[in-house]
Amino acid sequence: MIGAAFSLLLLAPPAAAFGLASNPPAIRVPHLPSIMMRAASRQPLRMMASATPAGGGGANEVLEAEQSRQVSISVFAVLAAAFLNLLGFTMMLGFTPALGSHFNLRIGARFGSLTSAYPVGMLAGVFIWPAVSDRVGRVPVLALSLAGSGVGLAAQSLALVCGWPLEAFLGLRVLTGSCAGASPIGKAYLADMGSCKGKLPTYLSWRDAAGTMAFIVGPALSGQIFRVVSLKRTVSTSLATVIGTAAFGSLLAAALVALLATEVDKIVVEAARESTTPAPPVKLIACPLGVSLVAGVVSVCIVSGLKDFGASAFDAFFAVLLKQRVGLDTRSISLAYSGLNCLSLSVSTLMASRCIRLLGPVLACCTGLALISLGLLGVGATVATGTGLLDPSAQLAFWASVVLYQVGVPLFGPTVPTMLLQCVPPNRRGTVMGIDNAINTVARVIAPLVLGMLYASAGAGACFKVASIVVACSAIMCAFRRLIVMRS
């Protein structure tokens, strides 16, 4: 609980950026008590248009301020939920070797199944949940998806405590993944709001910043929990406690969304009815990677999928390299993840949206992919020879390559939803983000298995070099598609 409170405090900067501690924006929505009463009774939200008589200028200003504050609260709730939900993933980043030891697994395909089982379930989740949110509404579907993830994580924790076999644990990870619709739905919600306010790249950059914050807090928090619990309990109990804490975070995220978030379409429609000036129409622009909408969406999704395939090498085996080639223990690995992700958070908050505005989403995307590819190539080159600990000069090159990777990921992150969501109608954004996530999920399922076999047969160097080539192909395709569109 203390960790969750600390996590929410870290979301204060994005909260201030959305007006929670400054001047409120101009869009008007209902006040918080009304939201909570309606949520409890499951009745549709209605604006308080009749609450203020005509000519009541002072009362109108108070109402506008209260309604504007609710817009900020809604965005903050979605960002906080994204952060808390991602804790379930980031808290386990440094514990893949420990899980492998718990189930007596060697490096290879079965070891890679620990990271690929969750994406298998996501294949269903990212298709179903976002599409339903296009029809039912973002808020209730987002809250239900988060709650399902929390229950699934709690079941995984129970499986470790009870000593269930690997197959049962992997099955629970698949079921948990089937509830993983929060990411595309949350991005679609922020795109709906950002399109109305002209802040689409900014909101999506803050979404990536919230995710990066989870990458900072998650490993550090899980490392501390693991250290404290392992002093008096077994390793299995310590792992179960870490996963149980992540489950609490997802359930808390579901509660935040259910109580605080407001449907964007209701905000916009009702605010337009009360306003004396007509609301601007929704602006859609052509996708920068395709002359037609379908070609553009497919191109962006393939670029994103290739990147995720290559990045899976880092996600699955970086902790193993830190243990075997750098000599870090479990707690030190968690702290290393947190330190590296502090760098990514700085890039997300200070550079990502500015880079998109200055360079455009395509060039920003290619820049991020190039840095990711160079980082993976550098890691592969430094660990290509030998199997023992790296010497000081090799460690310096290793960490420099890791820094390149950590800078490239947040630069690339917001470019894909920016390219996709600015050219898609609002009632299709959830579906499109679901398709993108489905392609990424296929990459995350296949990559750990393929790269795991390559790691076992040819070594870590070959594994990371192949991953670098795949990401480089993604950058080349992005640039090539843009040239075709410009010539057309």
UniProtKB/TrEMBL annotation:
<feature type="transmembrane region" description="Helical">
    <location>
        <begin position="282"/>
        <end position="303"/>
    </location>
</feature>
<feature type="transmembrane region" description="Helical">
    <location>
        <begin position="358"/>
        <end position="384"/>
    </location>
</feature>
<dbReference type="InterPro" id="IPR020846">
    <property type="entry name" value="MFS_dom"/>
</dbReference>
<keyword id="KW-1133">Transmembrane helix</keyword>
<keyword id="KW-0472">Membrane</keyword>
<keyword id="KW-0732">Signal</keyword>
<dbReference type="InterPro" id="IPR036259">
    <property type="entry name" value="MFS_trans_sf"/>
</dbReference>
<dbReference type="GO" id="GO:0016020">
    <property type="term" value="C:membrane"/>
</dbReference>
<feature type="transmembrane region" description="Helical">
    <location>
        <begin position="210"/>
        <end position="229"/>
    </location>
</feature>
<dbReference type="GO" id="GO:0022857">
    <property type="term" value="F:transmembrane transporter activity"/>
</dbReference>
<dbReference type="Pfam" id="PF07690">
    <property type="entry name" value="MFS_1"/>
</dbReference>
<feature type="transmembrane region" description="Helical">
    <location>
        <begin position="107"/>
        <end position="129"/>
    </location>
</feature>
<feature type="transmembrane region" description="Helical">
    <location>
        <begin position="466"/>
        <end position="484"/>
    </location>
</feature>
<feature type="transmembrane region" description="Helical">
    <location>
        <begin position="141"/>
        <end position="163"/>
    </location>
</feature>
<feature type="transmembrane region" description="Helical">
    <location>
        <begin position="396"/>
        <end position="421"/>
    </location>
</feature>
<keyword id="KW-0813">Transport</keyword>
<protein>
    <recommendedName>
        <fullName>Major facilitator superfamily (MFS) profile domain-containing protein</fullName>
    </recommendedName>
</protein>
<feature type="transmembrane region" description="Helical">
    <location>
        <begin position="73"/>
        <end position="95"/>
    </location>
</feature>
<feature type="transmembrane region" description="Helical">
    <location>
        <begin position="241"/>
        <end position="262"/>
    </location>
</feature>
<dbReference type="InterPro" id="IPR011701">
    <property type="entry name" value="MFS"/>
</dbReference>
<keyword id="KW-0812">Transmembrane</keyword>
<feature type="signal peptide">
    <location>
        <begin position="1"/>
        <end position="17"/>
    </location>
</feature>
<feature type="domain" description="Major facilitator superfamily (MFS) profile">
    <location>
        <begin position="74"/>
        <end position="488"/>
    </location>
</feature>
<feature type="transmembrane region" description="Helical">
    <location>
        <begin position="442"/>
        <end position="460"/>
    </location>
</feature>
